[in-house]
Amino acid sequence: MAKYKDYSYDQGVFLPVYFDRQILPGTFEYTLSHLIDNELDLSVFDKRYKNDDTGAPAYDPRILLKIILYAYSRGITSSRKISQCCEENIIFMALSAHTRPHFTTIADFVSSQDEEAVALFQEIILICDEMNLIGREMFAVDGCKLPSNASKEWSGTKADFKKKALKLEKAIEHIIEKHRQIDDIEEKNNIIESDAKYMATLQKQIKKIREWVNDNDDKPGAGGKPIKSNITDNDSAKMKSSKGYIQGYNGLAMVDSKHQVIVGAEAYGKGPEQDLLKPMIESTKGNLEDSVFEKTLLTADSGFHTKDNMDMLAKEGIDAYVADNRFRKRDPRFKDNDRYKERHRKEIAGKRKKSQLYSKEDFYFDPDFKFCMCPAGKRLYRSGRGFDTQGNFVTRFKAPKSACGPCKLRSKCLRHPDRSPKRSVAYFHSGTKNKDAPDTATERMKQKIDSALGRMIYSKRLGTVEPVFGHIRHTIKLDRFTLRGKIKVNCQWLLFCALHNLKKIHRYGSIPAT
């Protein structure tokens, strides 16, 4: 029978620990410690402390940065767990020199360093530039939507919140009325006791809603109509993501193609990205230099494609490749991408034929295009003709209300028969492009990105920017923002982007061993 040496976990040992010997050269913690101590100018952190003559000594910001960034690199975001690691983990002890900061100190440091986080991020970009990690050949910009520390159930307009408060008040009245109708005293006392906490919660929610409605106004949308606010975190927004609708922020990053270094980053409380291209360009210029886009290409997906953005890029002289939402449709390499959808449509055509809406193929068009006939035999009269914004010649027809109002085929003809008064149809004339249409920046961008060179350059965008978000979300494990408010969330986003760049310095940079 085999014999093994005796061992027991129910024992301890005293070890002489030298903190500098625990941080071994070649490790990420060594790179982190070396850069913070020797390369980065962190004097901006010193300015916020005013305890020279009076007050207790503060924790050195360099110590706090080391343990926070190292914890983030290991997927630890909780300030309580970071504080616990400083008590139990030897690497955290070495980085913090066993100073053991309290979790409230760590949480306050993360949530209050908004200006300092920007300065730290810029300093790390300059280090990357000095190490020649930024190629300046192509930048790719994109966004990553992450949930915030707020529930989407507390989103709405002032009118929505007033209705919700009334609904909660009616619920309280219903509970009180239920108590009045109970005759059995013993049973009544038991029910009142069990409902007391629930009623207190409802009253607290009503008070929260009333105070917010009295102190805040609706946020105006692009069209002037109010958009949904959030009582818990009004800087966040309800936005559509790959996992459905979330209450959160859109973390944007401008990424260099050489080593995927982030050269510009900011978190925004809005889902649509149309208005965020110019701020990201200005932010990147501020982090590097104003002339950075004179020789650097810029790529962005269709979320950034608007007429104003194309005009702005043309005015700034930026060599950009921004796809529009019809880019794939025009690409011959994707001509068969809908073949499975076509087969699916044909397979279920018989089942859905009765429920499908009438299309323009079901209408008869006069040879002179003076009118057209609908499937019900009613006339639609010409309401206009001319070139649209795409340069296509279009003839438009509209039906009179007297024809569509009593029609029995409204449910098959109108998408919303309950609120749409009449049907309209547009006929696109083939082969009638407007040759005299002005050469706009939008058209030039389409021609540019449809070229062989444009498709080749744009194809590099996906491999440049998407791995960055994958690294931040799944390796560093930023799956949601733990703070509230745009300033604090932006601070946390910049810390994670700075950590991503530190990882690139550790991998591709040259850090001396002594």
Give a written overview of the molecule.
The protein is an alpha+beta fold and 514 residues long. It is built from 20 helices and 15 strands. Strands 1, 6, 7, 8, 9 and 10 form a 6-stranded mixed beta sheet that branches. A 5-stranded antiparallel beta sheet has the order 11-12-13-14-15, with no helix packed on it. Strands 2-5 form a two-stranded antiparallel sheet.
Entry keywords:
514 residues; alpha+beta; 5-stranded antiparallel sheet; 15 strands; 46% helix; 15% strand
Going by helix content, strand content and strand pairing, the class is alpha+beta
Q: What is the rounded distance between the termini?
A: 51 Å
Helicity, as a percent range: 40-55%
How much of the polypeptide forms β-strand, as a percent range? 5-15%
User: What's the tally of helices?
Assistant: 20
Please, what is the average pLDDT?
A: 85
- Please give the radius of gyration in angstroms: 31 Å
Poorly predicted segments: 350-355
Number of strands: 15
Sheet bearing the most strands, described?
6 strands, mixed
Taken from the alpha-carbon principal axes, the silhouette is globular
